[in-house]
């Protein structure tokens, strides 16, 4: 295949559409999808953007078929199509951008690619809880499909020792979640606030604020698309909101 | 002051408008601002949302006047106005959400508040560099106005030892930036990619990809609104893009 020849007119957008509510999409994400004639998405996300894809070729694939989605997106773009490869949240954060750029690099493909950022689950979930992310934070995936669990646990430990607010994605592996939370709890106070957000900005959303002592009561609420936010040493709960202060009240009179 | 009486009809949106380009705003951010009759913003951001604020009362304030912005926003909302308190990026991430919720809490104020998330600089800058955030990352502010520098340096060290991709915000204090980068370099290879993004998605944007050995050559490019992204042990540069692979190529055939 001669990529140079096939490139003309082809373009690949790797698009993040935020947490799944049309109102939390960016204009750029909407425009990129509208400009595309081919849309590639994980089945659930294809459903969430149906309002934008009428009359377009929509290629869906199931979970764990990331490489298929990458290949078909690149192929379609090389054929001269304008393609949107769609992730929820931000397309980099455990989405399709990294894999696709890596694939293009390793195959030596020449293609016009644009990453369209989105509101990732950390920021979306945090907005539903109050303002837990008002100081330095860590975004950590608990999926051990591609990353060894020892590495994930080491990261959890360093994040805890650094007193970062910790945002956990993909907590599908319960034993790994339990182990991670144990490491955090060993180094943080029992009453450290923990926020659990399920389906932020979507139907049947559920937001829970608990703490490191009691969070396990809600373990059955936690699934693949739940985001968990563990506060740092300063985080507190007030009026049902989880707040990480940045230190203004130490320095200034309110 | 009887807050209960004054509350009627009043509402406070704490809104993130993303990196400053109207195309990277969410629909929810646009709608919140449009619904408001009072807008409170740092002077520069008020300029960036001028297209949305015609005919509204716009209250601007300079940097370091965060407490003034908080107070006036809350007061205006308590008087019955619909108010948007606007931050760039996401309103939690070194924006106005944390301080405002803390203020409302400490003063015992009863007010309808909604946080409207946005695309924060980490995700916006990363999109311009390729896909550096495709594995676990840390967001760390280098502003020591409110947080002791020892705490910032400790966080930088733990983030480095955890092999997180590290996103540095507010690198205005040059000695602190140099010290932070020194800590990172002591624990990472010299050729670890470093991305420097100035004014992502705005006029006169500048994107630089360098590495831990050479980044200091660009130190004079770095100002308050620059975002710096340091790769982890896996991050590489290919076709001018900074990519953090998530490990697919170890597990699957491309």
From the alpha-carbon coordinates, what is the Rg of chain A to the nearest angstrom?
20 Å
- Beta-strand segment tally of chain A: 13
Spatial sequence of strands, sheet with the most strands of chain A: 3-2-4-1-5
CATH fold type of the largest domain in chain A: Methyltransferase, Cobalt-precorrin-4 Transmethylase, Domain 2
* Mean pLDDT across all amino acids of chain A: 94
Sum up the overall morphology of chain A in one term. elongated
What's the architecture of the largest domain in chain A in CATH terms? 2-Layer Sandwich
Pfam family, one (chains A, B): TP_methylase
Keywords (chains A, B): Cobalamin biosynthesis, Methyltransferase, S-adenosyl-L-methionine, Transferase
GO molecular function (chains A, B): methyltransferase activity
Domain Tetrapyrrole methylase (chains A, B): 11-214
């Amino acid at each position: 295949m001669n990529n140079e020849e096939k490139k003309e007119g082809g373009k690949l957008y790797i698009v993040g559409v935020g947490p799944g509510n049309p109102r939390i999409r960016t204009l750029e994400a909407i425009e990129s999808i509208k400009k595309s004639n081919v849309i590639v998405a994980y089945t659930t996300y294809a459903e969430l953007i149906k309002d934008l894809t009428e009359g377009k070729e929509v290629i869906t694939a199931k979970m764990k078929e990331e490489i298929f989605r990458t290949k078909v997106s690149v192929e379609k773009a090389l054929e001269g199509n304008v393609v949107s490869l769609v992730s929820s949240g931000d397309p980099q954060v455990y989405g399709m951008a990294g894999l696709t750029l890596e694939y293009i690099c390793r195959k030596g493909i020449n293609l016009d690619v644009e990453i369209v950022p989105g509101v990732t689950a950390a920021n979306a979930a945090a907005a539903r809880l109050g303002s837990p992310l008002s100081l330095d934070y860590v975004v950590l995936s608990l999926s051990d499909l591609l990353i060894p669990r020892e590495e994930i646990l080491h990261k959890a430990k360093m994040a805890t020792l650094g007193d970062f607010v910790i945002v956990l994605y993909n907590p599908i592996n319960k034993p790994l979640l339990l182990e991670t939370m144990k490491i955090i709890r060993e180094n943080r106070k029992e009453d450290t606030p923990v926020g659990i957000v399920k389906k932020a900005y979507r139907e049947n959303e559920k937001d829970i604020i608990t703490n490191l002592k009691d969070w396990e009561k809600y373990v059955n609420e936690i699934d693949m698309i739940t985001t968990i936010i563990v506060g740092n040493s300063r985080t507190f709960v007030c009026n049902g909101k989880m707040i990480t202060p940045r230190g203004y009240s130490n320095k200034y009179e309110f």
